[in-house]
Amino acid sequence: MSVPRIWPGRALARALLVPALLSLGVFVSEAMQPVVLVLDLVVGLMAAADLASLRGAGRFRVFRQCGTTCSLGQPQQVTLALENMTRRGRRLRLRDDVPAVFTANPGEFRIDVPGRSRVELEYRVVPGRRGTYAFEQVDALVLSRLGLWQRAISWPARTEVRVYPDVRQIARYTMLARRDRLSVLGLRASRRLGTDNEFERLRDYIEGDDPRHLDWRATARRRRLTVRAHQHNQSQRILFLIDCGRMMAGDTGGGLSPLDHALNAMLLLAHVALIRNDQVGLLAFSDRTRAYIPPGGGPRRIRRLVHAVHNVFPEPVEPRYDRAFVELEERCRKRSLVVLLTNLFDEVNAQIVSEYLGNLTGRHLPLGVFLRDHDLFALADKAQDDGATLYRGAAAADLLNWRERVLAGLRRRGVLTLDVFPDDLTGDLVSRYLEIKARHLL
Q1: Residue 216 confidence (pLDDT) above 90
Q2: Of 86, 95, 144, 347, which is least packed with CB atoms within 10 Å of its CB?
């Protein structure tokens, strides 16, 4: 418990105001002087006696109960328990030490705690940023019996909370998939060109073969029972390359950065791929490697991905694509769907990305995902013939034309591309993956 601090309350200021006003009457009549002195004495004695009532005001036990993990933007309930260790009841104004990136509702409590009793308070917090944060203490103002004084007290109560990317979309995807309503998430249906058990050859029937695999036309032609032999598709790999450099910073609305949208889309696509028995890996980078998870499967893969990126934020540095791709070649030798999530606004980085993605063609299946900027498109759409606005609009349109030429060059080199606004990224990226699976491109 920290050193207490005591100061007068508003009630004491109002009590002192009465003798202060009466003291003005001393200038009119000296008979008012004894009255003022008596009032001063009464107020002083009351204040001293009321100050003594704060003795032992800090004798509380304070406990906090809340989850140690939560999702970005998802409400989390917190319970504070106060146990009064004295016989005297107390009036408090209490507030939890909520980290600045959280929004608390309500943010403060005004309560009466009877003597030898326990009170529980509940409130909700909404995290506004990923990362690891700590609730260090609980702060309170304890009021004296008459309310003339207040004492500031803090009780240590450390709770560490990890804020992960929004994983609620995974549960929502599962629910909508069961109801065949994935279009709500912006997913487009892809017609499969085959099944998970692909046709390999015709062969003679052997006792124990599944009768459903009999090919009656071939049987009639060959005049003996013939079955269609199938081969089971092997598990395929997806490796995400996520840019955490300066172009993935900023606010796209709702407090989410382009990197937040990229991570949310990555997690949902990873979930979709895992339930199709694919393996998923991750390489997050800026000017260095920020996180690496080798491709793998299993029910704990999502948890491992979430934990790896929950504390990764954009850095004000240029991304080193060359280092990321070199590390990719060293760590991932087997053919994979390589999904690069980034943004392009300059010729140098565009040339590096084009070169490395193009070189992956053949050994891997590269997919370049480039996030659009709402402000840039708005400038190009709202250009008017009034000088500065026209100039800015023309500059924005020129940058968008350059961007399209870069993407066209990537497509000519056999690189799959996806040019999308951050808000639409999740649905479009999962739809592109399902299309790749349906066309057996990987």
Answers
A1: no
A2: 347
Task: Residue 285: give its domain's CATH number.
Answer: 3.40.50.410
Q: Is 275 in contact with 430 (CB distance < 8 Å)?
A: no
Residue 233 DSSP code: P
Round to whole Å and give the CA distance between 64 and 68.
11
Tracing tokens 């990362």 back to the chain, one arrives at 131
Return the residue matching tokens 């506004």. 128
Q: Are residues 228 and 253 in the same domain?
A: no
Q: Is position 195 within any domain?
A: no
Enter the DSSP assignment of 183.
G
Residue 257 inside a domain? The answer is: yes
Cα 369 to Cα 423: distance, rounded to the nearest angstrom? 13
Q: Which of 148, 154, 81, 146 is nearest to 118 (CA)?
A: 81
pLDDT at 99 over 90: yes
- DSSP conformation letters of 250-318: S--STT--HHHHHHHHHHHHHHHHHTTT-EEEEEEESSSEEEEEEEE-STTHHHHHHHHHTT----SS-
Same domain, yes or no, for 401 and 365? yes
Q: What percent of the chain has pLDDT over 90?
A: 53
As beta bridge partners, residue 156 has: 137
Output the pLDDT for position 333: 87
